[in-house]
From TrEMBL:
SMART domains, alphabetized: DHDPS
Primary localisation category: cytoplasm
Catalytic activity: L-aspartate 4-semialdehyde + pyruvate = (2S,4S)-4-hydroxy-2,3,4,5-tetrahydrodipicolinate + H2O + H(+)
Coiled coil (UniProt feature): none
Lineage: Bacteria, Pseudomonadati, Bacteroidota, Sphingobacteriia, Sphingobacteriales
Record-annotated active site: 135, 164
Compartment(s) of residence: Cytoplasm
Residues at which pyruvate binds: 47, 206
Site, Part of a proton relay during catalysis: residue positions: 46, 109
Gene name tied to this protein: dapA
Function of the protein: Catalyzes the condensation of (S)-aspartate-beta-semialdehyde [(S)-ASA] and pyruvate to 4-hydroxy-tetrahydrodipicolinate (HTPA).
Enzyme Commission designation: 4.3.3.7
Keyword annotations of the record: Amino-acid biosynthesis, Cytoplasm, Diaminopimelate biosynthesis, Lyase, Lysine biosynthesis, Membrane, Schiff base, Transmembrane, Transmembrane helix
The protein's assembly and partners: Homotetramer; dimer of dimers.
Name assigned to this protein: 4-hydroxy-tetrahydrodipicolinate synthase
């Protein structure tokens, strides 16, 4: 599972001004990320605005992404939802060619118990041909995957190989790292705390800001993984402000603003998301220009 060591990018889905998927922009982004040295990308995660894409659009984006990547780096598909039966059917119907794993966020809105979360992932694990990465993001889902549930799933299902952990709860992260089976991967799901998480044993990040700054992000993460924390420190602090700005008016609107400034793709988002305010836009542009000067 060293395929998921290093920097993964939860890629945005570029849209044209009329809201249609911008496949030229998506190809530009994929090439830009590969040139930037990232280890893998995640297609149609939360950052990819998957909640606003139709089933047919998702199918086309997954296929296009696999074709554009063409085996050059590893590739993960984001497949999730709050109807377990529907998620299972999506996974069973998914065309796995070109993909290395499925990232699946815990069910949002329903607020299931820990047993419900366990049974949800059990059903997914029993029906997936690909390895599964759990995704715990309580700020979005409204419920937390506890350390005990994560460890239970890791022990019970060999094809549940890791977790993207975005709770920000270091007590919980410590418990998982202490109790997990050997080989189970802890991956940061929150850019600003990737540095300390790797110090605790995480194997990398699935990043948002890395869409715009793949080289800077992946270089910093690689230094952390090589235990060069002193060398990684500057990169960590350099990225803090742009990362903060990318979330002030919501994600992925912020990072799409940066990508437009870089000439990679446009900044259109689909409702209920909207583009960032003029003030935040100007701050993001100024921050991107600082990196371009370095």
């Amino acid at each position: 599972m060293n395929k998921f060591y290093g920097t993964g990018i939860a890629i945005v889905t570029p849209f044209l001004a009329d809201g249609q998927v911008d496949y030229d922009g998506l190809k530009n982004l994929i090439d830009y990320l590969i040139d930037g040295g990232v280890e893998y990308i995640v297609s149609l995660g939360t950052t990819g605005e998957s909640a606003t894409l139709s089933a047919e659009e998702k199918k086309k984006v997954f296929a296009f992404t696999a074709e554009a990547v063409n085996g050059r780096i590893n590739l993960v598909a984001g497949i999730a939802g709050n109807n377990t039966a529907d998620v299972v059917e999506q996974i069973k119907a998914f065309e796995i060619t070109g993909y290395d794993a499925i990232l699946s966020a815990s069910p949002q809105y329903n607020k299931p118990t820990q047993e419900g979360i366990y049974q949800h992932y059990k059903a997914i694990a029993e029906n997936s041909k690909l390895p599964i990465l759990l995704y715990n993001v309580p700020s979005r889902t409204g419920s937390n995957v506890s350390a005990a549930t994560t460890v239970r799933l890791a022990n019970d299902f060999k094809n549940i190989v890791g977790i993207k952990e975005a709770s920000g709860n270091f007590e919980q992260i410590n418990q998982v790292m202490r109790d997990k089976p050997e080989g189970f991967l802890m991956i940061s799901g929150d850019d600003p705390i990737s540095f300390p998480m790797i110090a605790l044993g995480a194997v990398g990040v699935i990043s948002v800001v890395g869409n715009a700054l793949p080289r800077q992000t992946s270089d910093m993460i690689r230094k952390c993984l090589n235990y060069d924390f002193k060398g990684a420190q500057k990169g960590h602090y350099d990225l803090l402000n742009i990362t903060r700005l990318c979330f002030v008016d919501g994600s992925p609107a912020g990072v799409k603003t940066a990508l437009k400034q870089l000439g990679i793709c446009g900044d259109t988002v689909r409702l209920p998301l909207v583009q960032v305010s003029e003030g935040v836009k100007n701050e993001i542009i100024a921050e991107v220009q600082k990196f371009n000067k370095n």
